[in-house]
Design brief:
By secondary structure, this protein is an alpha+beta fold. The chain is built from 33 helices and 23 strands. It has 4 domains: 208 residues, Metalloenzyme, LuxS/M16 peptidase-like (Cytochrome Bc1 Complex, Chain A, domain 1), CATH 3.30.830.10; 213 residues, Metalloenzyme, LuxS/M16 peptidase-like (Cytochrome Bc1 Complex, Chain A, domain 1, 2-Layer Sandwich), CATH 3.30.830.10; 192 residues, 2-Layer Sandwich (Cytochrome Bc1 Complex, Chain A, domain 1); 203 residues, Metalloenzyme, LuxS/M16 peptidase-like (Cytochrome Bc1 Complex, Chain A, domain 1). It has a 6-stranded mixed beta sheet, sandwiched between helices. Strand 9 and strand 10 form a beta hairpin. The chain is globular, with a radius of gyration of 27 Å.
Length: 946
Amino acid sequence: MLRTARAAGLAVFLATTALSGAALAQAAPAAVRTETPPIVYKERTLPNGLKVFTSLDRTTPNVSVQVWYGVGSKDDPQGRSGFAHLFEHMMFKATKNLPAESIDRMTEDVGGFNNASTYDDFTNYYEVVPANHLERLLWVEAERLGSLVVDEAVFKSERDVVKEELRQRILASPYGRLFGLYLPQATYTTHPYKRPGIGSIEELDAATIDDVRAFHQAYYRPDNAALIVVGNFDEAKLNAWVDKYFGPLKRPAQPITRVTAVEPPRTEPGVFNGYGPNVPLPALAITWKGPAASHPDAPALTVLDAILSAGKSSRLYNSLVYEHQIAAEAFSVADLPAQPGMFGVGAIMASGKTLEAGEAALMAEVKRLRDAPPTAAELAEAKNELIAGKLRERETIDGRGFALGYALLVDGDAAKANTEVADLAAVTAADVQRVARKYLADNGRMVIRYRAESERPATETAPAPATLPKTVAKYDGPVFALAPEGQRVAPPPLAEPVAPVLPKPVERTLPNGLRVIVAQSSDLPLVTADLTVKVGAWADPHGLAGTAAMTANMLTEGTKTRSAQQVASQAEALGATLSSGAALEASSVTLNVMPDKLDAAMAIMADVARNPAFAAEELERQRQQALDGLAVAYQEPGSVAGFAAAPVVFGGTPFGHVPTGTPASIARLKPEHLMAIHSAWFRPDNAILVLTGAITPEQGFALAERAFGDWAKPSAPLAAAPAVRPVVRPRAVAIDLPGTGQAAVTVVGPAIARSDPDYYPGVVAATVLGGGYSARLNQEIRIKRGLSYGARARLSTGRTTGSFSASAQTKNESAPEVLDLIKAELTKLAAEPASAEELKARKSVLVGGFGRELATTDGLADILGNLALYGVPLDEITAYTTKVEAVTAPQVQGFAGTVLDPAKASVIVAGDAKAFAAPLKAKLPGLEVIPVDRLDLDSASLKKGD
């Protein structure tokens, strides 16, 4: 997984928000919380230079093992961008004593998970496993540090996977080129931060095995690494294992090569023009040179960034999106890596709005911060949001390990993980204005304009690919190969398992019919409150797809006593996250906040759920944002295929439309449509309130009574939700997106209800097929053939029906092959029983994932809310493991044969059809090819004019 500092701070659509000056002046500053629990850790350094950090947590049955290396995208050789990221992939392959894919067997298949990320300044590898697997994971990490197999076959295979990742993230995303390629290229002139971390097809293809081996030798060494262990362990045993497995690794004699390039200051403004083939709305970014993360100005720039774009009460949202409505989305980013970085602002323009208008509006907001300090309310709100965010990051053991590693590799000191909150709290309004003046000067800006390729002037040609060196290194060091089976060192034995401590939910029904569930689950100062209302897209009137979704989205856009701006500013001043949304069968309002601000935040939550205004002007704003969002989504293969699934599978039923709406249906929505949904279904006897985290049952019930006790139950009886019974009508649909970089291939069909006796066999069957890296689809499509960045399967169950899907994205010309592979695996699952070993591994994936979800307040609230929604007893959280383990191979095989039959499923492929339509039609004679500009998801035919 590629993650640069830029990628972490910039998504294609970053939600950003702001308040008018008058509204801010009326808001009282909220108290800033500074007493966040520190991460208690111990540190030592081995004689070979390996740094070791350990942090004990007896409340979890798991342990996180992480190794952070001081090598990132900035260290890629010239002409070989993407090397650090390529090596992130290769480190999961074979070692001298471990066959390829063994790391997944020893993590995912025992109920844990593994992953890695590449940033500009580091690459990190991390696992979470049951605590009794700790010694094995330490041995594994020492193995791949000391004896990784880097051979031609592995190199070529993983290079193909990386190229598919590049196509998916950069070439198939409408704004992938802007954020992944053009933004760094335009911002930096000298420092290697200017190169894309994911590389390029040309540079990846030019790489040789010598290049790769030399890169590994240069940077994968104990004195360039930090081992971080967080979780439940015996300290003495842990230290002995670290010494045993990592101690013998040798420190090389040659020094580590470090980047010494210094980015010169920018002395005059610049303009960079970039283009992409599928850009529905123009976009721009404005960047300036910034300091390093360790610089004293970094906290003030971080707060400045939050004031500009954190949440729905930030300045950029208020000005560009809310008040003037010239942008679909606006963002800012303080990208402050280990060496001097950058600060940026930007926007994706609203339909019909110009880049010139966006640039003027962005610069006006920057000038405001240079000319005057932020208000006390803005400053307090930004700090509360940032500090609450730090708490949320540390709910998990791997999150705490990440905080330590990031502080070490980027700030230069792991202790910064425990001082960053105090550093943020110490920032003054004058500091914010000072850094705005210092770094965001007019003459230091670079304006990056991004438009559709069709708008490139005829006189301007696309730059030619650079001439690349044939090789960048000559390698003559040691080369490891997998030892013969009888000569391999066996992994260490397992210790005794640590039993999990499961939360104990307690419930009560208020006199008005509201069901309240409370589960005390954390000592970390966070609480999640989740209100689920039993109404979803099934309630959309005919021809008005998206009504329930828009109703839910509009809840936070103003009430009878609070404007949309006041809802945002008051919630965010508390450091709370308050969101609302809807799915097929339920709508929800979700709050996450620190306990000392819970009462005030719950009052806002209750107001938005009970008293939405559905103001016409607010609906119009939301309508335009939704339409702009759809314009972008209709250029993304995965999104388009996903939109088509509901009409294809559930056509003719209350589920047979796009739950979030279509351009035509959203244009028809009126306030009275939303009011009708709300008045009919948002009532206490049709709702469930779940409270989790640092809250006792007594506190939770009292809080529910204060916030919702006077919510009157209507006298009219509650109507029954309809039963949904889809008719199996398999279709084959290809949606043509000319110029897009990949095709999304999906096999989808109807499935079962949550109450079906085959629920657990179905969940296990879907997990065998496509639940995780080691599942069958990913094995066949990614691991064996390098055809996709990832392939997956999913079983979704509801009140009366459900659906299944199996999907992957691939280069356009490979779509027919990937479809064949998906269908073959569906057929094979029904043809023969899964082995005991495979079944055990996939069950462990389910059990481990369930346990990790229970460990966060949001995850626990989501699990309990869904159990209540579908009438499942709450003690299912204690029975889940037993029921999963009880599933047999014949049950999985039987489920696959009856529910996952590819002959009864539909096929949806979205991509550049000229590359796959002919061979696909040969396989699927009934294939319907629909150009995206003729796509009508409100029509049964899916075509305009039919």
